Amino acid sequence: MKKRWGSLSDKGTVTLNTDLVKAPKECIDYVVIHELCHLKYHDHSKEFYTLLDFVTPGWEKIKHKLELSLV
Ligand SMILES: [Zn+2]
């Protein structure tokens, strides 16, 4: 099962996993941006990823780095 780095409440509050403090800053930024994109799209639809690509080009690499840096 994959670790959850961040979540977004119905009220729009972003909650981050405390393990993120050990992650590189760009990874923290990625998680925050990912959750903020969910304010607009509440799923992982094509539109969501289009927005994510627009805001954070190369996010896949950052996500991969995040998964490798913390176990
Ligand atoms: Zn998500």
SSE map:
Elements: E1 6-8, E2 14-16, H1 25-40, H2 46-55, H3 59-69
Helix pairs in contact: 1-2, 1-3
The structure holds zinc ion.
Zinc ion is lined by residues 34, 38, 44.
Commentary on this structure:
The structure is a single chain. By secondary structure, this protein is mostly helical. The chain has one domain (6-69). Helices cover 52% and strands 8% of the residues. It has 3 helices and 2 strands; from the N terminus they run E-E-H-H-H. The chain has a two-stranded antiparallel ribbon with strand order 1-2. Helix 1 (25-40) crosses helix 2 (46-55) and helix 1 crosses helix 3 (59-69). The N and C termini lie close together (12 Å). The protein binds zinc ion. Residues 34, 38, 44 line the site of zinc ion (ZN).
